[in-house]
Amino acid sequence: MPKLKVDGIEVEVPQGATVLQACEAAGKEIPRFCYHERLSIAGNCRMCLVEVKPGPPKPQASCALPAADNQEVFTTTPMVKNAREGIMEFLLINHPLDCPICDQGGECDLQDQAMAYGRGHSRYDENKRAVTEKYMGPIVKTIMTRCIQCTRCIRFAEEVAGVEEIGAIYRGENMQITSYLEEAVTSELSGNVVDLCPVGALTSKPYAFEARPWELRKTLTIDVMDAVGTNIRLDSRGRQVLRCVPRINDDVNEEWAHDKTRHAIDGLVRRRLDRPYVRRGGKLHPATWDEAFEAIVAADHGKVAVVAGDLVDCETMFAAKALATQFGTPVLEGRQTGMDYDTSSLAAVNFNTTIAGIERADAILLVGTNLRWEAPLVNTRIRKAIKRGARVFAIGAETELTYKVTWLGDDLSLLGDLPEAVTEAFGKAERPAVIVGGAAMKGAHGAALGLATSLNLVRDGWNGFNVVHMAAARMGGLMLGYASKGGIADARDAGVTYFLGADEVEFTGFGGFKVYVGHHGDRGAAHADVVLPGASYAEKSGTFVNLEGRVQRGERAVFPPGDAREDWTIFRALSERLGKTLPFDTLEELRAAMALDCPDLAEPGLKTFAWNPPSLGTTAAGRIEGYPIKDFYLTNAICRASPTMQRCSAELVHGEAFAEAAE
Amino acid sequence: MADAPQIPDEAEVRARWGAFAWSDESREKRNAILARYPAGREQSASIPLLDLAQRQVGAETQTQGWLPVPVIEYVAREIGVPYMRVYEVATFYTMFNLAPVGRYHVQVCGTTPCMLRGSDDVLAACKNKGLVKGKTTPDGLFTLTEVECMGNCASAPMVQINDDNFEDLDYDRTVTIIEALARGEQPKAGTQEPGRHTVEPLGGPTSLVAMMSENHDYRPEWGA
C-alpha cells in the first residue's frame, strides 16, 4: 500500500496502482485520452503528464507510472501546465477544426480538454494531414482525420470484445486506425468503440447528424433486449428516443452495451400500434377503445390465460395477472417458445454466481449456450475469468465465442459422463461454475442440476449453478408465477388469452379469443382478435428482473404514440368494463399491491433465492443441434422494426455486402 | 498519405496468391524459425516469416518480392494470430513491400548525412537512368524508393539494392552500378571508394593511432 503525496495531499493507494489513480484518489483531475479504466495501459497520448519526485527532471506519463512510497506528485506546477499545453498543441496539429459539424461536439474529450488545458492557439502553419474514411460496419461511422491515435478502440476490440479486427496500420505520421481490409467489424459490441473514442473519429452511424447532446432529455432506465438488464440512458427529443447509451453499473454491464441495446431504438418509431383494432370478418379494423373493450367483454371468460412476451415489465404482468385471477385460476405463461422446465425453485433457474461473480470462477462448463448471442455482456465476463486463469468447457454445437473453449461435443448424455479433463479441472477448482443455456433447458435441466451435486458447485459463499435466460421479462415473470406446468400448451384451450407483447408464440394452436396488448404490429398483433396498443419499454416506468435476480426500475423517457397507453392502465380500464375493477389507480398503488403479491419485487436490488433444487432425474439424452437465437439482431418486435438491426442482420449474420456508394 | 502504398486486395490478387504455400526450401527455414520461439509465443515469428514469404514470392515472380494479402493471411494462419496483427506488422516495416516491385529494389537514402554528402546526385543519376520514385521501370528491372537513414552515415551517400549496400557513391558510380545490374552483372557491394575496405577513415586513422600496431594502454595518458 504505497503512501504518496499529490500536491501536498497524502494518499494511500493499493499496490500496483498508477500515479494517475493516486492523483484521482487525491481529488485531482488528470486529463487523458488513451487511458481508460477498463482497458490496458497504452501511454501513448501523453496528456496525463505530471511532475514526480524523485525521478528524472522531466514530466512523466502518470497513467503508466506505478505509484510508489514517498513519491511527491505535482499536478499544478508550471512544468505540468506547459507540458499539457504542448501536448495539446501537438494533438491539435492534425485535428480538423470541424467541431461545428462533428457529432462528438458538445461531449468531446478533446474539445473539453483543449478548452481546459490548451493554449488557445496554434503555431503550426503547415498543411494538416488528411486520412481517408474507413468502413467499419453498419454501426460505426468513421472520420479518421479526427483520430488522435489513442488506440482505445484497438484495445477494446482485442481485450473486451475479443474480436481482433481493428488495428493500426502504417506508422508514424501515416499511422491509421482501420478494421482489417476495411471489412465490417463482426462484433455485437462494436458500438462501444463509439463511446470509447475520445474524439469524433468513431461516431454512431445510425445517429449521424441526428441531434446535439445538449438538446436531449436524458432518462435513466433498463434495457430489455436481453435478460442482462443493461443499465441505459435514453436520450430523447420531443416524442422520439434518439439514442441509447449504457450507464456504468459494475454489477451488471460495467460500462458496455451491445449493438442491439444501442441501436434497436429506431424500431420504436416504426410499425407501432397507435390505435386499437378489432377483427371483423377475418380482418383487423381500426376501432375505438370502447369498441375494443366491448369485443373483449363479449368473449367467454370461462378460462383465462395470459401469455407474457419477452419485453414486458413486472407491472404489466402483475396487472394482467390480477385481472385474470378474478375469473378463477388462470393459466399464466411467459415461456413463449414452449419451454416447460421446472420452476418450483427459482434458484434452480437463476444465474446464481451473479454476473459480476462469474469473473471469479476458475472452471466453467457451458451447457447448450451460445453465450455470445444469448448474453453478450456475460460473455465478456467469461473472457475476464479466462484472463484470471479459468478453464472453459462447453457442450453444444461448436460456435465462435471469442475465447478458447474446449468443446466436448453436442451430446447431452455427456452430462452424466463427463470426460476426465472436466472432472479433474472441476475437482481442483475453488469456484466452479456451470452455465446452462436455452438449448439445454428443454431436456437437460435435471441433468444439469445433478452436476450441482456431482461437481460440488454449491459451497460456502459460492453457488456455481447458472441458467442463462434470454428475455428481459423472464425472471420477473417467474417470480410472479408466469409459468405453467405444461408450458404454453396449457393455455391453448383458454376461452380468452391475453398476449402481453408476445410475438414468438406458435399461434395456430390457440382456439379461443385472442387479445394482444403490445406496442408493435408484429406476429402477435397479426393473429389477434383484438389489438390494444400499449407502451414500449421506453414509454413506461417499469420493474425488470435480470437473469441473476436483480430487481431494477426504469423510468419513462417519452410518451406512447397516438392512442396507445401504458399497459397497466389498459388492464385497469378493462377491468372496470368487465365488472371486476382492479384495486389500484396509480402506479404506486399497483407497485404496493405487487409487493404484497411478491415481496421480492418491492425494492430494487439483488435478490437471492434459497438453494433447494427439485430432483428431476439426472439422465439426459439427445443432441444440441443449434441454439435458440438464430439471428442475434432480430430477436424481438422492436428489433424487427428497426432498419439498423435489419441491416446488421443482413450484413453481419447473413453476409450480404453493402458497398459504400462512391462519392 | 496519398503516396502511401495502396494494398491491392482485388480478385486477381486473391486468385493468383490464394493458394500460396511454403516451398520445400522455405518450409525448412520456416521450421527453423519457429523452433526459435517457445510454444505459445509463435507471434514472435511474424517478422522472419513475413520476410521468408516475401522472398519466396520474389523467387516465384523473379523480383524482389512483395506481400499480397493472401500471403499475409497465410503467415497469420501459420502462427495462429489474427490477420490484423500480422497485417499491422507488414504495413509498419518499410522493408515489407505492399505492392509488387522490380527485380532490383533501389532504396536511396535521403536523410541528412547522405543529403549533405550528395544523395541528390545519386537520385539524379537514378532519374537519368529512367527510374521514377515509387515506380517500377517498364522493363520490370528497377523500383526506386527514397528511404530514411540506413545507418551507413560514415560512408554516405549510400543506396541499398536488394540485400546489398553500395556506399560512397557519386553520380558516376551510381550510373555504373545501375548499368551493371541492368546487364545482369553483380557489382561489388559495399564502399565504392578505391582503397577503402569498410568505413575506416579516409587517408588513414587519425585517432588511437598507437593501437594500430599493438595493444596500447592509453589510461596513464588520460590521468585515469
UniProtKB/TrEMBL annotation, chain A:
Residue ranges constituting the 2Fe-2S ferredoxin-type domain according to the UniProt record: 2-79
Cofactor(s) listed: [4Fe-4S] cluster; [2Fe-2S] cluster
InterPro entries hit by this protein: 2Fe-2S_ferredoxin-like_sf, 2Fe-2S_ferredoxin-type, Mopterin_OxRdtase, Mopterin_OxRdtase_4Fe-4S_dom, NADH_UbQ_OxRdtase_75kDa_su_CS, NADH_UbQ_OxRdtase_ferredoxin, NADH_UbQ_OxRdtase_Gsu, NADH_UbQ_OxRdtase_Gsu_4Fe4S-bd
Stretches assigned to the 4Fe-4S His(Cys)3-ligated-type domain: 79-118
Entries under Pfam families matching the protein: Fer2_4, Fer4_NDSU1, Fer4_Nqo3, Molybdopterin, NADH-G_4Fe-4S_3, NADH_dhqG_C
Entry annotated with the keyword NADP: no
EC number(s) on file: 7.1.1.-
GO MF terms held by the record: oxidoreductase activity
Catalytic activity field: a quinone + NADH + 5 H(+)(in) = a quinol + NAD(+) + 4 H(+)(out)
Cofactor binding summary note: Binds 1 [2Fe-2S] cluster per subunit.
SUPFAM superfamilies assigned to the protein according to its UniProt record, in alphabetical order: 2Fe-2S ferredoxin-like, 4Fe-4S ferredoxins, Formate dehydrogenase/DMSO reductase, domains 1-3
Domain of life: Bacteria
Keyword annotations from UniProtKB, A to Z: 2Fe-2S, 4Fe-4S, Iron, Iron-sulfur, Metal-binding, NAD, Oxidoreductase, Quinone, Translocase
Domain 4Fe-4S Mo/W bis-MGD-type: 216-272
Annotated family: Belongs to the complex I 75 kDa subunit family.
General function of this protein: NDH-1 shuttles electrons from NADH, via FMN and iron-sulfur (Fe-S) centers, to quinones in the respiratory chain. Couples the redox reaction to proton translocation (for every two electrons transferred, four hydrogen ions are translocated across the cytoplasmic membrane), and thus conserves the redox energy in a proton gradient.
Protein name per its UniProtKB record: NADH-quinone oxidoreductase
Source organism: Sphingomonas corticis
From TrEMBL, chain B:
Necessary cofactors: [2Fe-2S] cluster
Xref: Gene3D superfamilies: Glutaredoxin (3.40.30.10), NADH-quinone oxidoreductase subunit E (1.10.10.1590)
Source species, domain of life: Bacteria
CDD domains named among the record's database cross-references: TRX_Fd_NuoE
Key words, A-Z: 2Fe-2S, Iron, Iron-sulfur, Metal-binding
Family: Belongs to the complex I 24 kDa subunit family.
Name this protein carries in UniProt: NAD(P)H-dependent oxidoreductase subunit E
Classification lineage: Bacteria, Pseudomonadati, Pseudomonadota, Alphaproteobacteria, Sphingomonadales
